[in-house]
Design brief:
The protein is α+β, with helices and mostly antiparallel strands. It is built from 3 helices and 7 strands, in the order ααββαβββββ. Strands 1, 2, 3, 4, 5, 6 and 7 form a 7-stranded mixed sheet that branches. Strand 4 and strand 5 form a beta hairpin. It is globular and about 40 Å long.
C-alpha cells in the first residue's frame, strides 16, 4: 500500500464529496469497521455505516460549501490533512478550518480517523 497515494485519494474524494454532499462516495474511503472521532471529547463513530450517518448529519444544515484540502503530510501508515470550508450553515456564512489524522490499512482504506476543527462566522 502506498500511503501517500491513499492519503491523496482520501483528500481528493473528501474535497469532491463534501462540495457535492456525496456521502456515498466519501463512505468508500473507510474500512467497514473503521473508527472516526470528530473532535477529541466526542464519542467515536464505529463502522462505515455510523461514520456515513454522522457525515450525512453534518451536511444536513449546510449549503453552498467551497471545500479545499491541503497536500497530505504522510508518515508510515498515517497522514495529516488540513482542510478549510466556506459554507452557509442554517443561513449563516461560516468558515470551518481543521485537520484530519487518518491511518490506512494495507488496501488503502481508512481504519481510524480523528478530526480537529473550529468554526467561525463569516468567510475568513
Amino acid at each position: 500500500m502506498n500511503t501517500r497515494a491513499a492519503a491523496q485519494r482520501f483528500a481528493d474524494t473528501w474535497q469532491h464529496g463534501w462540495t457535492h454532499h456525496d456521502t456515498d462516495r466519501i463512505a468508500t474511503l473507510y474500512h467497514h469497521d473503521a473508527v472516526h472521532t470528530s473532535m477529541p471529547f466526542r464519542p467515536p463513530h464505529r463502522g462505515r455505516g455510523a461514520i456515513t450517518d454522522y457525515i450525512r448529519w453534518s451536511f444536513s444544515t449546510e449549503t453552498a460549501p467551497h471545500v479545499t484540502f491541503a497536500t497530505p503530510i504522510v508518515d508510515g501508515d498515517q497522514a495529516v490533512i488540513e482542510f478549510r470550508v466556506h459554507a452557509t450553515d442554517d443561513g449563516t456564512p461560516i468558515t470551518l478550518a481543521g485537520c484530519v489524522i487518518a491511518r490506512f490499512d494495507s488496501d488503502g482504506l481508512a481504519v481510524q480517523t480523528r478530526d480537529y476543527w473550529h468554526t467561525t462566522q463569516g468567510h475568513v
